Amino acid sequence: MLSCTTKSLSFVRNLSIHEYQSKGLLKSFGVDTMIGEPAATPAEAERKAKEVLANGSGKLVVKSQIHAGGRGVGVFKSGFKGGVKLAESAKEAGELASKMLNEVLVTKQTGPDGRLVRTVYLEDAAPVKREMYLAILMDRGFGGPVIVASTEGGVDIETVAHTNPNAILKFPVDINAGMSTEQAMDIARGLKFEEKSVPQAADQIQKLYNVFIETDATQVEINPFAETTEGKAICLDAKFNFDDNAEYRQADIFEMRDPLEEDPFELEAMKHDLNWVTLDGNVGCVVNGAGLAMATLDYMTLAGGKPANFLDLGGGVNQKTAQEALRLVSKNPNTKLMFINIFGGIVSTAMVARALLEAIKVVKIDVPLVIRLDGTDCIEARKILKESGLKYTEATSFEDGINKCVAMAKNL
Ligand code: GDP
Ligand code: MN
């Protein structure tokens, strides 16, 4: 619950892209990754594998492309183990691809539903000596970018943070000055590169920082950041998130959005300029204003209820936004009760009441409805609702609304 509300705090949705796309981006900034090709069918995978083998080292990695980590140790619903596998021939790569494509991969990060694999990435396998961790993220505490580095890579970094926190190094970067060569060398030494390898590793780290800044990323995570048997630093995995507010100047990156990987409700809401986050409860919430929406979730949870979503209608509620909001909440199969919680500060609740009634004519609502209209013109607003013939439970205050929802939800 806490994480859900925190998630909606900033309203940054942080676009994600696939690993193969991330690697394309890295290459364009001079960051070293192995050569590779994506494929959508086993036949295509075998063909692409041949190409990669012809130009590469003679071994391949077949990697399931989903917007979630932990693929290496993930398990397919078919029972097949491993979303990242080594292959020695194009034929083997094709066979592995047929076990991954159109199958659902469950990892620590996907949740029990898993994710359908629609693309695999055929990548030249690197000769790995050791696996490290390197991430660049915007950090509130430092008020700028921070490099997180650890020699304990390839594994779940949360586990390392828990069992061996000293193994995680943090390097704040002055965003105005950028990353100096000295700082990049410090990081490389922190990652225990041998002195002769430090300049190349530092150069890679500096370039990674440049990608992060130039693409308006909120996070770049390279796990593993590896050292090859020749002592060269290379990125074996790449996970990016980008600031959605930067969409207007990062058109090429936002073209890579994969709607199939995103929450359909969130996408639908985005189309109508509404903010939505799917939660795991059963009370659908329609609220005006982000602050009140957050408070509604917290209050309901404290009172023993379970919100099914976060939804902020925005300040100026009109018939169109009301309609889209009600449509979304009704469409959610988990909504068993709906709570409309509107406080009119600038907006007249009488106007909101009329907009709601018009919207309800278009959107059929077949769950019990609790409505609280408070603030500007609320006497008139409540009268409008009462005289409309609409079936609903009236709440006269925020508290009253919460209590009624929680009591009604108990009897569902
Ligand atoms: P994740 O499990 O979703 O994080 O996927 P990764 O891309 O990190 O791959 C999982 C693991 O596969 C890595 O930690 C490596 O151990 C291994 N791996 C990935 N690429 C290569 C490669 O090119 N060479 C070798 N030897 N191992 C690799
Ligand atoms: Mn990884």
UniProtKB/TrEMBL annotation:
<dbReference type="GO" id="GO:0000287">
    <property type="term" value="F:magnesium ion binding"/>
</dbReference>
<dbReference type="GO" id="GO:0005739">
    <property type="term" value="C:mitochondrion"/>
</dbReference>
<dbReference type="InterPro" id="IPR017866">
    <property type="entry name" value="Succ-CoA_synthase_bsu_CS"/>
</dbReference>
<feature type="binding site">
    <location>
        <position position="131"/>
    </location>
    <ligand>
        <name>ATP</name>
    </ligand>
</feature>
<dbReference type="GO" id="GO:0006099">
    <property type="term" value="P:tricarboxylic acid cycle"/>
</dbReference>
<dbReference type="Pfam" id="PF00549">
    <property type="entry name" value="Ligase_CoA"/>
</dbReference>
<dbReference type="GO" id="GO:0006104">
    <property type="term" value="P:succinyl-CoA metabolic process"/>
</dbReference>
<feature type="domain" description="ATP-grasp fold succinyl-CoA synthetase-type">
    <location>
        <begin position="17"/>
        <end position="226"/>
    </location>
</feature>
<keyword id="KW-0496">Mitochondrion</keyword>
<feature type="binding site">
    <location>
        <position position="63"/>
    </location>
    <ligand>
        <name>ATP</name>
    </ligand>
</feature>
<comment type="pathway">
    <text>Carbohydrate metabolism; tricarboxylic acid cycle; succinate from succinyl-CoA (ligase route): step 1/1.</text>
</comment>
<feature type="binding site">
    <location>
        <position position="237"/>
    </location>
    <ligand>
        <name>Mg(2+)</name>
    </ligand>
</feature>
<comment type="similarity">
    <text>Belongs to the succinate/malate CoA ligase beta subunit family.</text>
</comment>
<dbReference type="InterPro" id="IPR013650">
    <property type="entry name" value="ATP-grasp_succ-CoA_synth-type"/>
</dbReference>
<protein>
    <recommendedName>
        <fullName>Succinate--CoA ligase [ADP-forming] subunit beta, mitochondrial</fullName>
        <ecNumber>6.2.1.5</ecNumber>
    </recommendedName>
</protein>
<keyword id="KW-0460">Magnesium</keyword>
<feature type="binding site">
    <location>
        <position position="288"/>
    </location>
    <ligand>
        <name>substrate</name>
    </ligand>
</feature>
<dbReference type="InterPro" id="IPR016102">
    <property type="entry name" value="Succinyl-CoA_synth-like"/>
</dbReference>
<feature type="binding site">
    <location>
        <begin position="345"/>
        <end position="347"/>
    </location>
    <ligand>
        <name>substrate</name>
    </ligand>
</feature>
<dbReference type="GO" id="GO:0042709">
    <property type="term" value="C:succinate-CoA ligase complex"/>
</dbReference>
<dbReference type="InterPro" id="IPR005811">
    <property type="entry name" value="SUCC_ACL_C"/>
</dbReference>
<dbReference type="InterPro" id="IPR013815">
    <property type="entry name" value="ATP_grasp_subdomain_1"/>
</dbReference>
<keyword id="KW-0479">Metal-binding</keyword>
<dbReference type="Pfam" id="PF08442">
    <property type="entry name" value="ATP-grasp_2"/>
</dbReference>
<keyword id="KW-0547">Nucleotide-binding</keyword>
<comment type="subunit">
    <text>Heterodimer of an alpha and a beta subunit.</text>
</comment>
<dbReference type="InterPro" id="IPR005809">
    <property type="entry name" value="Succ_CoA_ligase-like_bsu"/>
</dbReference>
<dbReference type="GO" id="GO:0004775">
    <property type="term" value="F:succinate-CoA ligase (ADP-forming) activity"/>
</dbReference>
<keyword id="KW-0436">Ligase</keyword>
<keyword id="KW-0816">Tricarboxylic acid cycle</keyword>
<keyword id="KW-0067">ATP-binding</keyword>
<comment type="function">
    <text>Succinyl-CoA synthetase functions in the citric acid cycle (TCA), coupling the hydrolysis of succinyl-CoA to the synthesis of ATP and thus represents the only step of substrate-level phosphorylation in the TCA. The beta subunit provides nucleotide specificity of the enzyme and binds the substrate succinate, while the binding sites for coenzyme A and phosphate are found in the alpha subunit.</text>
</comment>
<feature type="binding site">
    <location>
        <begin position="70"/>
        <end position="72"/>
    </location>
    <ligand>
        <name>ATP</name>
    </ligand>
</feature>
<feature type="binding site">
    <location>
        <position position="223"/>
    </location>
    <ligand>
        <name>Mg(2+)</name>
    </ligand>
</feature>
<dbReference type="GO" id="GO:0005524">
    <property type="term" value="F:ATP binding"/>
</dbReference>
<feature type="domain" description="ATP-citrate synthase/succinyl-CoA ligase C-terminal">
    <location>
        <begin position="286"/>
        <end position="398"/>
    </location>
</feature>
